[in-house]
Design brief:
Chain lengths: ~110, ~110
């Protein structure tokens, strides 16, 4: 089936540093999402993105977070500066249509902030 | 306020039994209700979904029962297999998707 790729699979950084998580969505998909999952817990919505714009974001999407997809390349989540509580698995997802369409998830990036 | 509530938190059944996972939601504007499953170390994947025009959706051993009046829906896994052991998330969407907390299902052989 359709595949979403995420790079890197793991990232360890020091608190205060910047990190960029990269997502390569399904090629014809138009909607992009980021989710945060702390080990063994619920997956929590961060943000969705369509037509070059943030459509909706949750309260977890702090001011230190930003997303973009320059020139149709990777869909990125940037955290600057990072905090200890940002340690989690970040899943990217994409769908052709909006929230009512099947979302295809990437394998996740495991971020550890020390 | 949590938009989607899921129970039980964990469930253990024997192979061949029917596992029943429950969800309820708050907002009447939700109009799409998917179930995702997630195996350890993997990403969530869509299992089955229903829209509120229906009260039942079947796909093989997996059935969603939907009660719009009570704002509840459930996933029934018939003839459970050890390979069904995973975490199951229900969700509800309109513009964005809200996930339940997940049910960790263990199917014992």
């Amino acid at each position: 089936g359709p595949k979403v790729l995420q790079i890197p699979s793991h990232q360890i950084i020091d608190m205060g540093q910047m990190v960029t998580l990269n997502c390569d969505p399904v090629s014809n998909h138009l909607y992009f999402y980021w989710y945060k999952q702390i080990l063994g817990q619920q997956m929590e919505f961060l943000v969705n993105f369509y037509n070059g714009k943030v459509m909706e974001k949750s309260k977890l999407f702090k001011d230190q977070f930003s997303v973009e997809r320059p020139d149709g390349s990777y869909f990125t989540l940037k955290i600057q500066p990072t905090a200890l509580e940002d340690s989690a698995v970040y899943f990217c997802a994409s769908s052709f249509q909006g929230a009512q369409d099947t979302q295809y998830f990437g394998p996740g990036t495991r971020l550890l902030v020390l | 306020q949590q938009q989607v509530r899921q129970s039980p938190q964990s469930l253990t059944v024997w192979e061949g039994e029917t596992a029943i996972l429950n969800c309820s939601y708050e907002d009447s504007t939700f109009d799409y209700f998917p179930w995702y499953h997630q195996f350890p170390g993997e990403s969530p994947a869509l299992l089955i979904a229903i829209r509120p025009v229906s009260n039942k959706k079947e796909d093989g051993r997996f059935t969603i029962f939907f009660n719009k009046r009570e704002k509840k829906f459930s996933l029934h896994i018939a003839d459970s297999q050890p390979g069904d052991s995973a975490t199951y998330f229900c969700a509800a969407t309109y513009n964005r998707i809200f996930f339940g907390d997940g049910t960790q299902l263990v199917v014992k052989p």
